[in-house]
Design a protein that fits this description.
2 copies of one chain form a homodimer. Chain A has 2 domains: 123 residues, Response regulator (Rossmann fold); 93 residues, Orthogonal Bundle (Arc Repressor Mutant, subunit A). Chain A is 40% helix and 22% strand. Chain A has 8 helices and 12 strands. A 5-stranded parallel beta sheet of chain A has the order 2-1-3-4-5, with helices on both faces. Chains A and B meet through helix 3 of A and helix 3 of B. Chain B binds a DNA duplex through helix 8.
Chain lengths: 232, 232
DNA sequence: AACAAGCGTGACGGATTCGTCACGGTGACA
DNA sequence: TGTCACCGTGACGAATCCGTCACGCTTGTT
């Protein structure tokens, strides 16, 4: 399905991941040496890079910065692996432009889910500046929402929240996912904050607020097509 | 160069515009009847639509709404023509998702400039979610600016302002242009507001603020490459 | 050199926005 | 049917953001 570059020096971990990804239909390329990353990326054109920060020799952060600094590689999504507790403050300070972030130890399944999420996001989003969903039209460029052709003003957070929901409509976004996508990694917003913003969004959408559906115990979902309502 | 659809019932005006655009290397197609707009757009695939709001029969606003409601035509830039004073409140209320806006009477030259500006914007912007300029990387999707790899937080206006400047770097953006692009048409911000925001931007960029250059008497400009500084 | 227009800058008040909390309602499950 | 986790909602304070103004410097022109 997709080509994935894995930068990881511990060969057993790399192999485990690779095996699992292959089984899921992805093509995994493993690299243990940091110095080979740049050439490998330029040659192989992976769709995603999984980067372990703990590498012998070259620092993982350095690699990451170089990837982001080069025009040819800046757009490639990167998922960062790090040991628990290690360099977390450094990362927080960097506010890294990584697309996701995973702390060891983790299960291959977990990594696979993250990769899927990133792929989903990237493939749908990149190269589309306007999202059309039924009566809704989201204009990223001007940060505006059009409902039946009339413009609605949204705040920054409301816009990001709705964008995230609409990018992948009809899929359930868990609370954790939304918090991560909208607020970022190092966010310590309280539990009810998300609910409050969902509520404000629904308010602004008026009757169309029904398109934002609560999936109890899981999260929220944007439904472009509403199911036929039952008569009272 | 580009195919442009002109919807205008006064044939002399349409011809004048058409002539001028042809001379500038564009292909102009004229339509006088509102009902023919949709089929013409679907057949001809114009890059830009110039739409007169004052049409016999079908209302220009209706046409505009239909264009925006249809997925196949929603992304096409529209420049709206209107007589002075006419329906302005209606338009303000709509906050129309038009790409530009011209009040009659206007010179063909003026329209041409607007068209050029829109084309420039659209061609560069659409389909690119990240802008790379030297040490800067603008991430529209997450509304973040990366300077040498580290993230900077910008407010909504700051982000739009910088985006506008960076989209077309090394070209001078007049104050009027910036006010229009960042604040929108119906904005009544005072003269110094723009200056203040430019200042705040420069502050946040730190030393890199020098990339935002003042063109005295004209406007501002983003220079990706700074000229070699003179020794004191 | 003197003047005027254009621009940079600091300060300030109002408006918006955001996160948090408490409370009540609702659905799921035993 | 009762209990509990989960969710909706209103209110509130703090923080941020934004537009405006006044003042002074700079630039270029006469």
């Amino acid at each position: 399905m997709s080509k994935i570059l894995i930068v990881e020096d511990e060969s057993d971990i790399a192999e485990l991941i690779s095996l699992h990804l292959n089984r899921e239909g992805h093509e995994a390329i493993c690299i243990g040496n940091g110095l080979q990353v740049m050439p490998a990326v330029l040659e192989q054109h992976p769709e995603i890079i999984v980067l372990d920060l703990m590498l012998p020799g070259l620092d993982g952060l350095q690699i990451f910065k170089r990837l982001r600094a080069d025009t040819r590689t800046a757009a490639i999504p990167v998922i960062i692996l790090t040991a628990k507790g290690q360099v977390t403050d450094k990362i927080a300070g960097l506010e890294l432009g990584a697309d996701d972030y995973l702390t060891k130890p983790f299960s291959p399944r977990e990594l696979y889910l993250r990769i899927s999420a990133v792929l989903r996001r990237v493939k749908k989003v990149t190269h589309v500046s306007e999202i059309q969903r039924g009566r809704f039209m989201l204009d990223r460029k001007n940060m505006k929402l059009f409902l039946d052709g009339t413009a609605l003003d949204l705040t920054t957070i409301e816009f990001k929240l709705l964008t995230t929901l609409m990018e992948n409509d009809s899929t359930v976004h868990s609370r954790a996912d939304l918090l991560r996508d909208v607020w970022g990694y190092n966010s310590d917003v309280a539990t009810r904050t998300l609910d409050t913003h969902i509520k404000r969004l629904r308010e602004k959408l008026g009757a169309a607020g029904e398109h934002i559906v609560t999936i109890r115990g899981t999260g929220f979902q944007f439904q472009t097509e509403l199911p036929a309502s039952q008569p009272a």
